Amino acid sequence: MTDITLVHGDITEQEVDAIVNAANSSLMGGGGVDGAVHRRGGPAILDECRRLRASRFGGGLPTGYAVATTAGELPADWVIHTVGPVYSESEDRSALLASCYRESLRVADELGARTVAFPAVSAGIYGWPIRDAARIAVGTVLNTPSQVVEARFVLFNEDAYAAFEQAL
Ligand code: ADP
After folding, report:
1. Catalytic one among 3, 10, 34, 77?
2. I need a surface site. Which of 24, 39, 47, 90 has the fewest CB within 10 A?
3. H helices present in the chain, as ranges
4. Count of C-beta atoms within a 10 Å radius of residue 157
5. Dist CA 151 CA 16 (whole Å)
6. What pLDDT is recorded for position 1?
7. What phi, psi does 69 have (nearest 5°)?
8. Which of 11, 33, 121, 161 to mutate to test the pocket of ligand 1 (most atoms within 8 A of CB)?
9. Which one-letter DSSP state was computed for residue 149?
């Protein structure tokens, strides 16, 4: 059974087997978590992302999918890139957000990662209301069987931490 823990902080500093990146489909970097991961992890991550684009994901990584690369200079061993859905008021995209967590755990199992740090996927630039994002994140991790012993949600600000605490 996976233990869920919550911490305040920066996901790039976590000493875990794998950290999850809130990537965009291009895998070529961006803002928020993605920017921090590439900035602190160095060029090895982008090199591997380029190779993924040239091989398995020519059209980009689809929303709700996850794929692993090296973590470069980060303390973690791997980065699991997942693409969250952009929030929409007119369409319910929660199944895609749940898929990000489920697929990330599946990739973690393939890697043999036992401790995994997650950000609040889609709750930044992609505009997802934090309470709803937290409910989907916690609910999906609790309901997804995996070999991961610790799923650590790393929350960047007070509001996000409070939302995850409440969801838990
Ligand atoms: P998305 O594009 O999926 O919305 P973002 O990276 O913009 O992803 O934001 C996702 C969440 O991660 C937001 O709650 C944001 O405040 C938070 N965040 C941004 N940078 C970091 C970081 N270095 N560590 C942990 N969380 C972060």
Report:
1. 34
2. 90
3. 32-41, 43-54, 94-111, 130-142, 158-167
4. 11
5. 10
6. 84
7. -135, 175
8. 33
9. S
Find residue 115's DSSP bridge partners.
150
Q: Report the length, in residues, of the chain.
A: 168
Neighbours of 25 (CB within 10 A): 15
**What angle do helix axes 32-41 and 43-54 make, rounded to 10 degrees?**
110
Ligand 1 pocket test, pick from 38, 80, 104, 156 with the greatest ligand atom count within 8 Å of Cβ, gives: 156
CB atoms within 10 A of CB 158: 9
Residue entry with tokens 């996976």:
2
Distance CA 44, CA 58 (A): 19
Q: What angle do CA 60, 61, 62 make, to 5 degrees?
A: 105
Give pLDDT tens digits for 108-142.
999 999 999 999 999 999 999 999 999 999 999 99
ipTM for the whole complex: 0.98
Beta bridge partners of 150: 3, 115
Is 34 a known active-site residue?
A: yes
